[in-house]
Amino acid sequence: SKTFIPPPSVVLVSLVDLLGDAQFLRDIVATMLAWLIAIAIAIAVAVPAGLLLGSIPVLRTTTAAIVEFLRPIPVAALIPLVLLVIGSGPEAKITLAVYASLWPIMFNTIYGMNEIDPVLMETARACGTSRFRILSSVALPQTAPFVFTGVRLSATIALIAVVSTEFLAGSEVGLGSYIMLVSTGSTRFDLVFASTLVAGALGYLINEGLEQLGKRLFRWNSVDREAIA
Fold it and tell me: What is the per-residue pLDDT across 51-61, written as a single tens digit (0 to 9) for each?
């Protein structure tokens, strides 16, 4: 019925109204700020971890069991624990978004390490270059396209984690908290659909923007792959 599934015309009008609502725009800003902080922390943690695990096989082997145990745990299952330890503030959704998004970055970095020409690494070692310099000056530039792919994948995952945590944990501000509010506290299902469309649009714009940026930054890598193919 129209009560539960409003026609597209009504949803469109509600969407336009929402985009002019200062409180709703503050919710979007809160969500995007948490997303930005989370993805920045995930990159800062996952890239060095991926470089180390990719360059030290023994370390990768010894930590494999822990990584494979933690990686499949869904964010929703961790919400009660995080709320108990951290509370329901912005730190909770940032923490869960970091947890959800660091895995693609880390594993893409490890994969990129496996694709580096061994001659480059051996030449750097033969010249007496320290491990830190090898990882930062040789490995990181070579793995950059793979790292960026991981970041692109993690960006949408982080947004999903932030919005989901806002929705499930009852956050005071954010896009997810707004969706929860209008879906439980009123019969304005047009607002539910409209705000959900905004969340989907944000995810699409993030993914599309990063994909286009990657094509510009790593055009040389695309050319090389096409030549190999």
Answer: 999 888 899 99
